[in-house]
Amino acid sequence: MTTLTMTRATLLKDLRMEWRSKDAINSMLFFALLVVVIFSFAFNPTAEESRRIAGGLVWVAFLFAAVVALNQTWARELRNQVLDAYRVSPAPPNALFLAKAVGNFLFVVVLEGLMAPLFVVFYELRSVGPLWQLIVVALLGTWALVVNGTFFAALSIRTRSREIMLPLILFPISIPALLGMVDATTAILTGEASPDFWIKMLAVYDVVFTAVCLLLFETVLNAE
Amino acid sequence: MTITEAHNPAGVTAPSLPLAMVLENLVKFFGRFAAIRGITASFAPGRLYVVLGDNGAGKSTLLRIVAGLMEPSQGKVELLGAGKIREVAHRIGYMGHAPLLYDELSGMENLRYFAGLYGLHDDRICKDAMSMVGLDAELSRRVGQYSQGMRQRLSLARAVLHNPELILLDEPFSNVDVRSAREMAAVLGQVRDKGKTIFVVTHQAALMEGIADEFVHMSAGQIVAREETARRADDQVKTTS
């Protein structure tokens, strides 16, 4: 039994359960939709202004929406104490973490795919820089959010007010990644600067935090 | 053929096998409260132990420590000859107080996933486990729509799915009607007869009369008495003669 096999099995199980309940995706979608609509009424920017502020708006919307999904991640494992069944099994703990992180990554990427056209319409966005760079930033940025989010959600599952705890722990540690995402997105949309530095920084952030989360997850999983 | 037979054709535990469980001066504190107070005991393999005691006696805590879900504050647990529970995790089955099942999945989907955790990918194993506890493997209903009794049966199927040598069951008969509870108890007897060691924590001692080999009485975090049953005494007489 390899980590990859168990990651795949757990991921498929989570996707099946999400497909049936649609708990995470529905809450994320409605939340992101609200943010887009409310911000568009609150700011009503011109196309030029939009390009400058969209990086921030987009990522703040996705960050808050992702937190909604991240809170759901472990809720299913806590119901009926199913997590105990995993803990007593010989399955590798990191497979559970990877499956949850990849699952959250997919949910947030789907959300971004659905919300991107709305952002374009509401904020009259046109990218001056190459579009493929935006996709790279979106993928790296999303992984940065979910890998930490999945880890800290696991860390806070045994706390009483875990839905408040998660953003309290996650947001400060995500600041470097958030800076990278916002600045890289703004640089690509306005075409005024190169996003290369921020993209590299995001890649390094992803590697470092993925490694740290994988190293520490077993301890978090078995903490009382 | 039952699932147990499928994985253990011999079906009998050799007498030379190590003790199923050795507890050495086990202590567990929750804050300043000692839930387990220095338990030292050993348990032979191939027997069905029923752990009895009032609420708060430490039965579930002891079971969770043995299952590896909780670290003891002091002391050692040795299972199936291994000092580290993780090393023998594939040889242990655990049924918790909660069902440990996903409500959104069907019974077979649940078992398939949990079988995968033990590296088993044969649907036949899951079907055998379901039929062993008297559930229909074709039932497409999600577990969330199961009755409490069906959940408990499925939970038992999940615990024995991988043919473990040591089975730990915490209140397997709670919220189960008397007839289903008797059937479950009979299943446990059959599993024990295949050479498995079973620990059942329950308040319903009467259900296990005639099936259990030993009653282990706990009080205030300690094992206060161990009582071999008439069934065990009969077996010993047969062996001697």
Set out the fold topology.
The complex is a heterodimer of chains A (224) and B (241).
Chain A: H1 3-21, H2 23-43, H3 47-73, H4 75-78, H5 82-88, H6 93-123, H7 131-155, H8 162-190, H9 196-222
Helix pairs in contact in A: 1-6, 2-3, 2-6, 3-6, 3-7, 3-8, 6-7, 6-9, 7-8, 7-9, 8-9
Chain B: H1 3-7, E1 21-30, E2 33-43, E3 48-53, H2 59-67, E4 74-79, E5 92-95, H3 107-117, H4 123-132, H5 148-160, E6 166-170, H6 178-193, E7 197-201, H7 205-208, E8 214-219, E9 222-228, H8 230-240
Parallel strand pairs in B: 3-7, 3-8, 5-6, 6-7
Antiparallel strand pairs in B: 1-2, 1-4, 8-9
Helix pairs in contact in B: 3-4, 4-5
Can you describe this structure?
The complex is a heterodimer of chains A (224) and B (241). Chain A has helices at residues 3-21, 23-43, 47-73, 75-78, 82-88, 93-123, 131-155, 162-190, 196-222. Chain A has 224 residues and is mainly α. In chain A, helix 7 (131-155) runs antiparallel to helix 8 (162-190). The two termini of chain A are 26 Å apart. Chain B starts with a helix and ends with a helix. Residues 1-15 of chain B have low confidence and may be disordered. In chain B, strands 5-6-7-3-8-9 form a 6-stranded mixed sheet, with helices on both faces. Chain B has a 3-stranded antiparallel sheet with strand order 2-1-4, covered by helices on one side. By secondary structure, chain B is of the alpha/beta class. Helices cover 33% and strands 25% of the residues of chain B. Chain B has one domain (45-68, 88-240): Rossmann fold (3-Layer(aba) Sandwich). In chain B, strand 6, helix 6 and strand 7 form a beta-alpha-beta unit. Classes of the chains: A mainly alpha (224), B alpha/beta (241). The interface between A and B is medium-sized, with 24 and 29 residues.
